[in-house]
From TrEMBL:
Keyword Iron assigned: no
Protein name: HTH-type transcriptional activator RhaS
Keywords, comma-separated and alphabetical: DNA-binding, Transcription, Transcription regulation
Coiled-coil regions listed in the entry: none
Short name of one Pfam family: Cupin_2
Alphabetized SMART domains for the sequence: HTH_ARAC (SM00342)
Organism per entry: Paenibacillus allorhizosphaerae
Residues in HTH araC/xylS-type domain copies: 191-289
Origin superkingdom: Bacteria
Gene responsible for this protein: rhaS_20
Length: 294
């Protein structure tokens, strides 16, 4: 299957942003629709269509985007797009690593924007149901594009402000409460723990070792993690293991047993149980959904 990890080269490394306007058009009215390969990247992606019709696919959803429509794709989420019709398609793509924007004022919302419980894709309901939120996010994307491309004096400050305005708009437009506030997360304590988990998913991860990294007792760390992240440490690790397994499943060509071991799960029954818990389907059904998306 033709899937790859897309490298994102920031126009300004300090801002952790890449934003660009693209144009695409069929070479002839009878030509087949142009498809972009399945891919993923660490950065969250926003797409604003300005002209024409674009289709976007993830393993669980498909979107048909017309002028003025916006869609968000979460961090490391597989996706691909397709241009339909004979009209030229003009669209802006914004890639942003949100982590640098989690300052003290943002930390109450860290675990939701970092997709611990819900993929950011679930926020796309907002753009279907709330015209004001959709229009405002579209305007913000355009402003970020203009600042980064124009590079006027102070554009770094302006772009950074617009990213925060974007996050605020999502927070206030989220009528389903996916981004509810919670107790603030101490990123200085939590980041080394989350990085350790990401780096050791193929191994056995002992909570005793992680509690030492946090400088806490086993018992206190267990309570601290659940209060900070809204789920137990074990559930968090399992969620990360299955997310990695999803990407390996469609990228590596390995069999399911090898993939389970590659994400640190030796017991196959447990692997299938976890995969179905987080995806609502088996690995085979997950691949069928990927294959079925045009």
């Amino acid at each position: 299957m033709d899937i790859y990890k897309e490298p994102i080269h920031y126009q300004n490394p300090v801002l952790c942003i890449k934003v660009w306007q693209f144009e695409a058009q069929k070479t002839a009215p009878s030509a087949p629709a142009q498809n972009v390969r399945w891919h993923y990247h660490k950065e969250v992606e926003f797409i604003l269509v300005r002209q024409g019709v674009q289709e976007l696919y993830t393993p669980s959803h498909s979107y048909t985007l017309h002028p003025g429509d916006v869609v968000v794709v979460g961090s490391s989420q597989l996706h691909r797009s397709r241009f339909v019709g004979s009209e030229k398609v003009v669209y802006i793509v914004l890639h942003v690593d949100l982590e640098p924007y989690f300052d003290a004022a943002m930390m109450r919302y860290y675990r939701h924007f970092s997709e611990v419980h819900h993929p950011l894709e679930e926020l796309n309901y907002m753009f279907r149901e709330n015209e004001n939120a959709r229009s405002e996010v579209g305007r913000i994307i355009e402003r970020i594009h203009d600042e980064i491309i124009g590079k006027s004096t102070g554009y770094e400050i302006a772009a950074s402000m617009h990213i925060r305005h974007l996050l605020l708009t999502l927070l206030r437009g989220d009528t389903r409460g996916l981004l509810q506030a919670h107790d603030s997360v101490d990123l200085g304590v939590m980041k080394p723990i989350l990085d350790y988990v990401d780096d050791h998913l193929a191994e056995k991860i002992e909570m005793e070792k992680v509690s030492q990294i946090a400088g806490m007792s086993y018992f206190y760390f267990s309570k601290y993690f659940k209060k900070s992240m809204g789920e137990s440490f074990t559930d968090y690790v399992n969620r990360k293991r299955i997310a990695k397994a999803e990407r390996l499943l469609v990228m590596s060509g390995q069999n399911v047993g090898d993939i389970a071991r590659a994400v640190g799960i030796e017991n196959m029954a447990h692997f299938y149980e976890l995969f179905k818990r987080f995806n609502g389907c088996t690995p085979k059904q997950y691949l069928s959904k990927i294959d079925g998306a045009r």
